[in-house]
Amino acid sequence: MFNFSANHLFLVSRTERPACAVFLMQDRDTQRLYRLYDFTKARLIRPGQAYCVAGKVNSADRLYLVIESVRPDTKHARRPTVRAPADGAGGSPMA
């Protein structure tokens, strides 16, 4: 076994299996897809948010990326789509 880590991963899908939860995640920089296995079924990964994932590669007869830790990727956080006007306008109306 050896370690792996990846940043800027976004959730594509989550599948519940009897032994584990399987997350399909995409690296938005390289467009690679990763199938990550959570045998604890305790990871909370939400769509629309970038994550940093670390774990172990288990290579018995098949290659499994087993999640050990997940945290929000603050360097690649999704920026708001609506920007505030530069002059500060757009606030609540005055009474």
Overview of this protein structure:
With 95 residues, this protein is mainly beta. It has one domain: OB fold (Dihydrolipoamide Acetyltransferase, E2P). It contains no helices and five strands. The chain has strands spanning 2-16, 21-27, 33-38, 51-59, 63-72. Strands 1-2-3-5-4 form a five-stranded mixed barrel. It is globular. The chain starts with a strand and ends in a 23-residue tail after the last strand.
Category by helix and strand content: mainly beta
Overall domain count: 1
Shape: globular
Total beta strands: 5
The spatial strand order of the largest sheet comes to: 1-2-3-5-4
Bin the helical content: under 10%
Low-pLDDT regions: none
Q: How large is the share of residues in beta strands?
A: over 45%
CATH superfamily annotation: Nucleic acid-binding proteins
Amino-to-carboxy terminus distance: 65 Å
Oligomer: single chain
